[in-house]
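forwarding from the other thread:

> can someone predict this with coproporphyrinogen III?

sure thing
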Amino acid sequence: MKTILRALRGETLPTPPIWMMRQAGRYLPEYRATRAQAGDFLKLCYNPELAAEVTLQPIRRYGFDAAILFADILLIAQALGAELWFETGEGPRLSTITGPDGLRALKGKDDIHATLGPVYETVRILSRELPRETTLIGFAGAPWTVATYMIAGRGTPDQGPAHALKSADRATFEALIDLLTEATIEYLSAQVEAGAEVIKLFDSWAGSLKGADFDDFALQPAKRIIAALKARHPGLPIIAFPREAKERYEGFARATGADCVALDNSVDAAWAAAHVQVDGCVQGNLTPHHLVTGGQPLVDATREIVRAFSGGPHIFNLGHGITPDADPENVRLMIETVRGAAA
Ligand code: CP3
């Protein structure tokens, strides 16, 4: 069985399998060339041949144990009828949802496939073309994180507009979370039918939900999505990433039914081994900046994470996506260190 699937089933392996968030990305010259060929980032996401090509690039270059579908968490917003574009050097821009009218203008959960069809085609190409030992990961954004972009129309430092709508018009906010929860189930289910072997749910802004809000808008939607996916696809392994959840990482897998919890790099690995890995597989959590700076600090930090999680199931990864200024040779050094080949 593929190493990632073994770790997700709870096996402690002598060497942790490894992949990397944003492994297909701007730090690679071959990615930048293919993106230019596609025209821009969104055109690349919706071009199945080229999206499959950039997914495969880091597999060819490094032999990662998993490939993650090349797409974006905001495509589902577009599939629901939001406008979406990317400002070069700045990030995503969307039409905004400020009240009931914005919500009513959206499409239904079953209307998303017309827009997202090319993504499923990318998955089908990848399941044919990936090496037999490489696991194919599909993904979506968690409802709260996608809602923060749909409400604000862009990324925000503190998710202020989404918190404001939650206070000012709870009904609209909750209906948006519900719609996203249901659409995400359909979206991920279609990815699995196309050939995704593992699903990852990215809740990048989970850390800004406190107290009962964390339960209602991070934990509960994840639980609903995971239960629905596992009912339709028995045995499907699911990784949850409630980024910056801090002490709420503890118990998250038990409460949601996730097979693995991905840890951001603010989490101490020894703490996570004692409090999170006790419930099953963990993924993470090297600080991405080490791939910019490299050298002995990269080797030491990598070894420390491998050692801290060596007593249980672990998938090595970064704590967040690799940045465009990272050196591709440092990625090689990280992989060699994890696999024990480095001096
Ligand atoms: O390699 C992979 O990890 C798979 C593809 C992937 C992308 N985005 C490609 C991408 C995945 C899994 C994502 C997830 C994603 N997208 C998240 C959750 C993870 C996280 O980073 O917290 C979020 C919040 C987004 C939304 C998004 N997409 C933002 C805020 C931005 C701009 C910031 C940035 O890094 O540029 C993007 C753009 C984006 N998504 C790029 C890539 C490769 C860069 C765009 C480009 O190539 O021009």
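The chain is about 50% helix and 15% strand. thats all i got for now
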